[in-house]
Design goal:
Blueprint: E1 6-8, E2 14-16, E3 18-20, E4 30-43, E5 46-59, E6 69-76, H1 91-94, H2 100-124, H3 126-133, H4 139-142, H5 166-192, H6 202-206
Parallel strand pairs: 4-6
Antiparallel strand pairs: 1-2, 3-4, 4-5
Length: about 210
């Protein structure tokens, strides 16, 4: 019991032999289950579901004889053999609860980091903004040489310059946008609860 031994019945049911109590005040730390309740649901000549529950725990003592008993209960069911595992994929039972607080916390963290980066960029480009927004009445000042420009203004001409592999970049950008939209749609469906990987017919029912 200290190594958590368990037994396996013929029809695939698992159960622990007993329990090990770690309470120091208890003299009998090893407890053995002496009675097994087996509930079997069947459809015609096929077993659909088996449930095992254990009762009557007895302290394990040296030299003591224990009587092991079991009871079997048969119940008919309308579940077919092909759908016997649907009980383990029950959507209401295994539905994950949405942690709205964590989502809100992450959303606020994203807003905070976005604002922090924006403040850093604004402080860095403040001088350039002031210089480019200044109204110059002098024609010679408006026709200043490109060599006098500094900062991000130096690359303003490269914005409209076509890249070398335009078709390849367009395909990659289009594919990335499609995948990003797909991921966003899956996340939204998972949030509202219409998508669950354990329930294959959820989307068919919704749409």
């Amino acid at each position: 019991m200290g190594k958590w031994f368990y037994f396996v019945l013929y029809f695939g049911v698992l159960g622990f032999v007993g329990e090990l109590h770690t309470d120091r005040n208890s003299d009998n730390k090893h407890v053995l289950y002496t009675h097994k309740n087996i509930n079997i649901k069947y459809n015609k000549d096929q077993i659909i579901h088996v449930n095992l529950s254990q009762e009557s725990p007895k302290p394990l003592e040296a030299g003591r004889t224990l009587d092991m008993t079991y009871s079997v209960k048969w119940e008919p069911t309308n579940i077919s053999f092909a759908h016997r595992f649907d009980v383990y994929l029950d959507y209401p039972f295994f539905e994950h609860q949405i942690h709205w607080f964590s989502i809100f916390n992450s959303f606020m963290m994203v807003i905070f980091l976005t604002g922090l980066v924006s403040m850093i960029l604004m402080r860095t480009l403040r001088n350039d903004y002031a210089k480019y927004a200044r109204e110059d009445d002098d024609l010679e000042t408006l026709e200043r040489d490109v060599s006098e420009e500094s900062g991000w203004k130096l690359v303003h001409g490269d914005v409209f310059r076509p890249p070398h592999y335009l078709a390849l970049i367009s395909a990659l950008v289009g594919t990335g946008a499609q995948l990003a939209l797909l991921v966003l749609l899956v996340i939204l469906l998972a949030i509202v609860g219409t998508l669950y990987v354990g329930y294959a017919g959820a989307l068919d029912i919704i749409f």
